[in-house]
Amino acid sequence: MNEIAELTKDYPRFKDGRIDYTNARVCPVLNCTVMCGDEVLLTYRSKDVIAYPETWNGISGFIDEIKPFNQIVRDELSEEVNIQADDIASISIRQKMIQIDDAINREWHVWPVLVELKRKPEIKTNWENKEAKWVLKNDVLKLALMPFYAETFQIAIGDGV
User: Fold this and answer.
1) Of 160, 127, 147, 157, which Cα lies nearest the Cα of 40?
2) Is 47 helix (H, G, I), strand (E, B) or coil?
3) What pLDDT was estimated at residue 49?
4) Could you tell me if 67 and 160 are in contact, meaning their C-beta atoms sit under 8 angstroms apart?
5) Tally of domains within the chain
């Protein structure tokens, strides 16, 4: 977290204290690959999100508060798809990677995360995602994925790139 605190020390803040990445080029984010057995939970991003609308993705979000990674992961899962802490068997945070998208002038500092669930919970999406579905792990790369998610997914599940 020290790296993120240092990176964002001069970034503007929202009234509630969260980091505002609206005009930032460098943005720290996490992207969770959520698995239950050999199935992966993917979400179809809403047309209302700023980056990469209408593509399939894991559960992702800006790291907009300085707090433990596991807590950020749990908060994001609860907020976006209604997965609660007692549904989670394990959280594995992988090495940060940098993904540069010159088309939208963003440098994403991405922490791939593998979240393994004890059971499939009832999924309820928020406004960021139009829908969610369970996909066999071997079928994930066949979908129209958000840019860079294929690489993030492979690192999260331990298949490299």
Assistant:
1) 157
2) coil
3) 87
4) no
5) 1
Residue 19 domain boundaries: 2-157
pLDDT at 161 (0 to 100): 45
CA 96, CA 109: separation in Å to the nearest integer? 7
CA atoms within 13 A on the CB side of 142: 6
Angle at 108 between CA 104 and CA 111, to 5 degrees: 150
Q: Which residues of the chain have pLDDT under 50?
A: 161
CA 25 distance to own-chain centroid: 18
CA distance 8 to 26: 9
CB-CB contact of 82 with 123 (8 Å): yes
Cα 16 to Cα 12, 143, 145, distances in angstroms = 11, 37, 32
Q: Please name the amino acid found at residue 120.
A: K
Phi-psi group of 96: left, alpha or beta (phi > 0 → left; psi -120 to 50 → alpha; rest → beta): beta
Which residues 6+ apart lie within 8 Å of 128 measured at CB? Answer: 43, 45, 46, 48, 49, 80
Secondary structure class of 133 (helix, strand, coil): strand
* CATH number of the domain to which 16 belongs: 3.90.79.10
Measured distance CA(35)–CA(117) in Å, rounded: 6
Q: Which two tokens stand for residue 94?
A: 């992988």
